[in-house]
Protein backbone atom coordinates (compact mmCIF):
# COMPACT_ATOMS: atom_id res chain seq x y z
CA UNK A 1 0.00 0.00 0.00
CA UNK A 2 2.72 2.62 0.76
CA UNK A 3 4.23 1.93 -2.66
CA UNK A 4 0.90 2.60 -4.39
CA UNK A 5 0.31 5.78 -2.39
CA UNK A 6 3.82 7.02 -3.13
CA UNK A 7 3.49 6.23 -6.82
CA UNK A 8 0.18 8.12 -6.91
CA UNK A 9 1.74 11.26 -5.44
CA UNK A 10 4.72 11.11 -7.79
CA UNK A 11 2.41 10.37 -10.70
CA UNK A 12 0.53 13.58 -9.94
CA UNK A 13 3.81 15.52 -10.04
CA UNK A 14 4.78 14.01 -13.40
CA UNK A 15 1.26 14.62 -14.72
CA UNK A 16 1.77 18.33 -14.06
CA UNK A 17 4.85 18.26 -16.28
CA UNK A 18 3.00 16.44 -19.06
CA UNK A 19 0.03 18.82 -18.82
CA UNK A 20 2.36 21.80 -19.04
CA UNK A 21 3.95 20.55 -22.25
CA UNK A 22 0.60 19.61 -23.81
CA UNK A 23 -1.55 22.61 -22.85
CA UNK A 24 0.91 25.50 -23.16
CA UNK A 25 3.96 26.34 -25.24
CA UNK A 26 7.43 26.06 -23.67
CA UNK A 27 7.99 29.61 -24.93
CA UNK A 28 5.47 30.74 -22.32
CA UNK A 29 8.25 30.65 -19.74
CA UNK A 30 9.81 33.71 -21.40
CA UNK A 31 9.39 37.03 -19.64
CA UNK A 32 6.30 38.99 -20.77
CA UNK A 33 5.20 36.25 -23.12
CA UNK A 34 1.71 36.88 -21.70
CA UNK A 35 -0.15 39.60 -19.83
CA UNK A 36 1.23 39.75 -16.25
CA UNK A 37 -0.77 38.91 -13.12
CA UNK A 38 -3.64 37.10 -14.84
CA UNK A 39 -5.69 34.71 -12.67
CA UNK A 40 -6.28 31.17 -13.98
CA UNK A 41 -8.45 30.97 -17.08
CA UNK A 42 -8.84 28.81 -20.18
CA UNK A 43 -5.79 30.29 -21.89
CA UNK A 44 -3.62 30.13 -18.77
CA UNK A 45 -4.81 27.25 -16.52
CA UNK A 46 -2.56 28.36 -13.64
CA UNK A 47 -2.53 32.07 -14.44
CA UNK A 48 0.51 34.24 -15.02
CA UNK A 49 2.95 35.95 -12.67
CA UNK A 50 4.26 39.51 -12.53
CA UNK A 51 6.91 38.88 -15.18
CA UNK A 52 4.33 37.64 -17.68
CA UNK A 53 5.29 33.96 -17.47
CA UNK A 54 2.60 31.31 -17.76
CA UNK A 55 2.59 29.43 -14.45
CA UNK A 56 1.75 26.03 -15.95
CA UNK A 57 4.71 26.37 -18.33
CA UNK A 58 6.85 27.47 -15.40
CA UNK A 59 5.82 24.38 -13.42
CA UNK A 60 6.54 22.10 -16.40
CA UNK A 61 10.08 23.52 -16.56
CA UNK A 62 10.69 23.85 -12.83
CA UNK A 63 9.81 20.28 -11.77
CA UNK A 64 12.39 18.48 -13.98
CA UNK A 65 15.09 21.00 -13.01
CA UNK A 66 14.42 20.49 -9.30
CA UNK A 67 14.31 16.71 -9.70
CA UNK A 68 17.62 16.79 -11.58
CA UNK A 69 19.38 18.56 -8.70
CA UNK A 70 17.74 16.29 -6.11
CA UNK A 71 18.59 13.06 -7.93
CA UNK A 72 22.14 14.19 -8.66
CA UNK A 73 22.77 15.36 -5.11
CA UNK A 74 21.17 12.30 -3.52
CA UNK A 75 22.84 9.88 -5.93
CA UNK A 76 26.35 11.26 -5.51
CA UNK A 77 25.91 11.41 -1.72
CA UNK A 78 24.86 7.74 -1.64
CA UNK A 79 27.76 6.70 -3.88
CA UNK A 80 30.32 8.48 -1.70
CA UNK A 81 28.70 7.26 1.50
CA UNK A 82 28.46 3.68 0.23
CA UNK A 83 32.10 3.49 -0.82
CA UNK A 84 33.35 4.93 2.47
CA UNK A 85 30.88 3.01 4.63
CA UNK A 86 31.61 -0.36 3.02
CA UNK A 87 35.36 0.24 3.16
CA UNK A 88 35.24 1.21 6.84
CA UNK A 89 32.86 -1.58 7.83
CA UNK A 90 34.70 -4.36 6.04
CA UNK A 91 38.35 -3.54 6.71
CA UNK A 92 37.91 -2.07 10.21
CA UNK A 93 40.99 -1.10 12.18
CA UNK A 94 42.79 2.10 11.23
CA UNK A 95 40.76 2.49 8.03
CA UNK A 96 37.53 2.32 10.00
CA UNK A 97 38.87 4.73 12.60
CA UNK A 98 39.88 7.36 10.03
CA UNK A 99 36.62 7.20 8.09
CA UNK A 100 34.47 7.12 11.22
CA UNK A 101 36.30 10.14 12.63
CA UNK A 102 35.84 12.03 9.35
CA UNK A 103 32.12 11.25 9.41
CA UNK A 104 31.75 12.33 13.04
CA UNK A 105 33.61 15.59 12.41
CA UNK A 106 31.60 16.34 9.26
CA UNK A 107 28.33 15.69 11.10
CA UNK A 108 29.17 18.38 13.66
CA UNK A 109 29.39 21.04 10.94
CA UNK A 110 26.03 22.82 10.37
CA UNK A 111 25.08 21.78 6.86
CA UNK A 112 22.76 24.68 6.13
CA UNK A 113 25.40 27.21 7.16
CA UNK A 114 27.95 25.58 4.83
CA UNK A 115 25.47 25.54 1.95
CA UNK A 116 24.57 29.19 2.49
CA UNK A 117 28.25 30.15 2.63
CA UNK A 118 29.05 28.26 -0.59
CA UNK A 119 25.94 29.53 -2.35
CA UNK A 120 26.70 33.13 -1.40
CA UNK A 121 30.34 32.80 -2.53
CA UNK A 122 29.51 32.16 -6.19
CA UNK A 123 27.52 34.70 -8.22
CA UNK A 124 26.44 32.02 -10.71
CA UNK A 125 25.65 28.42 -9.73
CA UNK A 126 24.59 25.80 -12.27
CA UNK A 127 22.18 22.95 -11.56
CA UNK A 128 25.01 20.40 -11.72
CA UNK A 129 27.19 22.43 -9.35
CA UNK A 130 24.27 22.74 -6.93
CA UNK A 131 23.80 18.96 -6.97
CA UNK A 132 27.47 18.26 -6.25
CA UNK A 133 27.61 20.90 -3.52
CA UNK A 134 24.64 19.32 -1.76
CA UNK A 135 26.17 15.83 -2.17
CA UNK A 136 29.38 16.95 -0.47
CA UNK A 137 27.38 17.91 2.62
CA UNK A 138 25.07 14.86 2.66
CA UNK A 139 27.28 11.77 2.33
CA UNK A 140 27.87 11.31 6.08
CA UNK A 141 24.48 9.79 6.91
CA UNK A 142 24.64 7.10 4.21
CA UNK A 143 28.25 6.32 5.16
CA UNK A 144 27.35 5.74 8.81
CA UNK A 145 24.31 3.58 8.04
CA UNK A 146 26.09 1.49 5.38
CA UNK A 147 29.04 0.92 7.74
CA UNK A 148 26.68 -0.45 10.39
CA UNK A 149 25.13 -2.86 7.90
CA UNK A 150 28.51 -4.08 6.62
CA UNK A 151 29.68 -4.74 10.18
CA UNK A 152 26.94 -7.36 10.46
CA UNK A 153 27.30 -8.76 6.93
CA UNK A 154 31.05 -9.33 7.13
CA UNK A 155 30.49 -12.00 9.77
CA UNK A 156 28.11 -14.02 7.59
CA UNK A 157 29.05 -17.41 6.21
CA UNK A 158 29.10 -16.33 2.57
CA UNK A 159 31.77 -13.73 3.35
CA UNK A 160 33.89 -16.27 5.20
CA UNK A 161 33.59 -18.68 2.30
CA UNK A 162 34.64 -15.91 -0.11
CA UNK A 163 37.71 -15.22 2.03
CA UNK A 164 38.63 -18.90 2.08
CA UNK A 165 38.29 -19.06 -1.71
CA UNK A 166 41.01 -16.40 -2.01
CA UNK A 167 38.94 -13.37 -3.02
CA UNK A 168 40.49 -10.02 -2.10
CA UNK A 169 38.83 -7.48 0.13
CA UNK A 170 37.59 -5.15 -2.60
CA UNK A 171 36.30 -8.05 -4.69
CA UNK A 172 34.35 -9.35 -1.71
CA UNK A 173 32.90 -5.88 -1.20
CA UNK A 174 31.89 -5.58 -4.86
CA UNK A 175 30.76 -9.16 -5.53
CA UNK A 176 29.41 -10.32 -2.17
CA UNK A 177 28.45 -7.41 0.05
CA UNK A 178 27.16 -4.89 -2.49
CA UNK A 179 24.49 -7.17 -4.07
CA UNK A 180 23.13 -7.93 -0.60
CA UNK A 181 22.87 -4.21 0.17
CA UNK A 182 20.97 -3.16 -2.96
CA UNK A 183 17.46 -3.15 -1.34
CA UNK A 184 18.89 -1.29 1.63
CA UNK A 185 20.72 1.20 -0.61
CA UNK A 186 17.51 1.85 -2.53
CA UNK A 187 15.82 3.05 0.65
CA UNK A 188 18.87 5.15 1.54
CA UNK A 189 18.82 6.71 -1.93
CA UNK A 190 15.20 7.80 -1.58
CA UNK A 191 15.95 9.37 1.79
CA UNK A 192 19.00 11.10 0.31
CA UNK A 193 16.86 12.53 -2.50
CA UNK A 194 14.45 13.93 0.10
CA UNK A 195 17.37 15.54 1.94
CA UNK A 196 18.79 16.95 -1.29
CA UNK A 197 15.39 18.34 -2.30
CA UNK A 198 14.94 20.07 1.05
CA UNK A 199 18.44 21.57 0.86
CA UNK A 200 17.91 22.71 -2.73
CA UNK A 201 14.58 24.37 -1.99
CA UNK A 202 15.98 26.00 1.13
CA UNK A 203 18.86 27.60 -0.76
CA UNK A 204 16.71 28.70 -3.66
CA UNK A 205 14.05 30.27 -1.44
CA UNK A 206 16.86 32.30 0.11
CA UNK A 207 17.89 33.44 -3.37
CA UNK A 208 21.15 31.44 -3.39
CA UNK A 209 20.32 28.85 -6.03
CA UNK A 210 20.85 28.83 -9.80
CA UNK A 211 18.98 32.06 -10.51
CA UNK A 212 19.31 31.65 -14.28
CA UNK A 213 17.19 28.46 -14.23
CA UNK A 214 13.49 28.02 -13.49
CA UNK A 215 13.09 25.72 -10.48
CA UNK A 216 10.45 25.21 -7.80
CA UNK A 217 12.55 27.00 -5.21
CA UNK A 218 13.23 29.96 -7.50
CA UNK A 219 9.51 30.20 -8.27
CA UNK A 220 8.70 30.44 -4.57
CA UNK A 221 11.52 32.97 -4.10
CA UNK A 222 10.10 35.19 -6.84
CA UNK A 223 6.59 34.89 -5.39
CA UNK A 224 7.95 36.06 -2.03
CA UNK A 225 10.07 38.78 -3.63
CA UNK A 226 7.10 40.22 -5.51
CA UNK A 227 4.78 39.80 -2.47
CA UNK A 228 2.39 37.52 -4.37
CA UNK A 229 0.78 36.25 -1.16
CA UNK A 230 -0.13 39.73 0.07
CA UNK A 231 -1.42 40.70 -3.37
CA UNK A 232 -3.80 37.72 -3.43
CA UNK A 233 -1.98 35.98 -6.28
CA UNK A 234 -2.35 32.51 -4.84
CA UNK A 235 -1.81 30.89 -8.26
CA UNK A 236 1.83 32.03 -8.14
CA UNK A 237 2.94 30.43 -4.87
CA UNK A 238 0.37 27.65 -4.35
CA UNK A 239 1.29 25.37 -7.33
CA UNK A 240 5.00 24.96 -6.40
CA UNK A 241 4.09 24.44 -2.75
CA UNK A 242 1.50 21.78 -3.64
CA UNK A 243 3.96 20.05 -5.97
CA UNK A 244 6.60 19.99 -3.24
CA UNK A 245 4.12 18.52 -0.75
CA UNK A 246 3.19 15.80 -3.25
CA UNK A 247 6.86 15.18 -4.03
CA UNK A 248 7.83 14.80 -0.38
CA UNK A 249 4.81 12.63 0.39
CA UNK A 250 5.51 10.42 -2.61
CA UNK A 251 9.16 9.97 -1.68
CA UNK A 252 8.21 9.30 1.94
CA UNK A 253 5.85 6.46 1.04
CA UNK A 254 8.24 5.05 -1.57
CA UNK A 255 11.03 5.11 1.02
CA UNK A 256 8.78 3.44 3.57
CA UNK A 257 7.92 0.67 1.12
CA UNK A 258 11.57 0.09 0.21
CA UNK A 259 12.57 0.11 3.88
CA UNK A 260 9.99 -2.58 4.63
CA UNK A 261 11.61 -4.72 1.93
CA UNK A 262 15.18 -4.07 3.09
CA UNK A 263 14.39 -4.32 6.80
CA UNK A 264 11.34 -6.54 7.34
CA UNK A 265 12.20 -7.05 11.02
CA UNK A 266 11.61 -3.36 11.73
CA UNK A 267 8.27 -3.57 9.94
CA UNK A 268 7.23 -6.54 12.04
CA UNK A 269 8.26 -4.77 15.22
CA UNK A 270 6.02 -1.79 14.48
CA UNK A 271 2.91 -3.78 13.55
Sum this structure up briefly:
The protein has 271 residues and is mainly α. It contains 11 helices and no strands.
Structure description:
The protein has 271 residues and is mainly α. Helices cover 74% and strands 0% of the residues. The chain has eleven helices and no strands. α1 (2-23) packs antiparallel against α10 and α3 runs antiparallel to α6 (140-153). The two termini are 14 Å apart.
Structural class: mainly alpha
Poorly predicted parts: 266-271
Portion in beta strands: under 5%
**Total DSSP helices:** 11
Query: What is the H/E order?
Result: HHHHHHHHHHH
- Would you count the extended β strands for me? 0
Rg of Cα set: 22 Å
Report on the biggest sheet: none
Helix percentage: over 70%
Query: How does the overall form come out from the CA principal axes?
Result: elongated
End-to-end Cα distance = 14 Å
**pLDDT averaged residue by residue:** 88
